[in-house]
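Following up on my earlier message about guanosine-5'-triphosphate. Here are the inputs again, as you asked, copied directly from the submission form:
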Amino acid sequence: MEAIILAGGFGTRLRPLTYTRAKSLLPILNEPMINYIVRSLPKEVNKVILAVNYRKKQIEEFFETHDCGKEIIVNDEPTPLGTGGAVKFAENHLTGKFFVLNSDIIASLNLEEMISFHEKKNSASTISLWPVENVSEFGVADVKDDGNIVGFVEKPKQEDAPSNLINAGAYLLEPEILDYIEKGRLISMEKEIFPRIIRDTNRFFGFRFSGYWMDVGRMSSYIDVHKFLMKRKNLQNYIGKNCKIKGKLLDSCLGENVEIRKNTELNSTVVYNNSIIEDNVTIANSVIGENCFIETGSKIMNSVVGDKECIQPNSVLNNHLRWTQSIPNGYPKKQIGNVIGE
Ligand code: GTP
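Thanks, got it. Here's what our run produced:
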């Protein structure tokens, strides 16, 4: 059985970190986020199709050097084809029912249980469902008691919402679904294909699960997922190899070879490999990229500093994305479209 992992997005909401690397390789507790998805695959999946485009070489290299025990196919789209186009583009590699998984979701979803549910329901298309409190930010599933989904309502008011269940970014599909997707164009599975399947079949089901679910596509949730996973491990901080720490850390994660000099305080902050944070610096709710140098006396709040940036002494950054280098060719100015949520 195959699993397609969608990893071809630009990750514009996580720029400037994604100017230099694929979003799916951004570390969470020093491990690329795509690895969390690969580790969650059940034994039934023997082949992983990586649907890639932007920064595909980095993703390819990661899997060349990290054996995950499954066959890996790097399926490079000529241009980004969207979530539906990427699935159609993988058609030649599929042999039966298959998973489609977003690479930016960290969740306790049990894919083995999802297969059993799918088979029991004789479903053509099963999507994972997660309950949320604030439905007004999401596409909400209209789901019957037996799990049959009859539609989605986009960003409903609380009182008009058919349920509190949203698309959680993991699908299990029968090959017949491929006939609904046109070849070679940018196409959204969620916006264009799912409504058609619902209309034409009554075999579209939702699989609810409990535990945890985090869409780590934006900066606040990227920091939150670190804090959440540290808490689960009962850790106050997560520190990579060869770090030198003279200052204070709280709810923070350091990559390898990071230096935190004296009287410096980090709170809810992620620092990537080889960065140096000088004396008397305060950083909160921020991400500092690789090989950065943050000079003495600086204050950084709710900000992101891209790789290889240098922050001058006594700088104040608040709600700031720091990037002084060139932006990669073809990188979009804004989000192209998204799958879950808005
Ligand atoms: P934003 O620009 O911040 O919205 O990020 P994104 O480009 O990753 O888009 P989004 O978060 O909506 O994507 C959800 C998942 O689909 C991620 O795992 C993306 O890598 C993936 N994805 C989005 N667009 C494409 C595409 O055109 N091709 C492929 N192969 N994957 C895609």
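One observation from looking it over: The chain is about 20% helix and 30% strand. Hope that helps, and feel free to reply on this thread.
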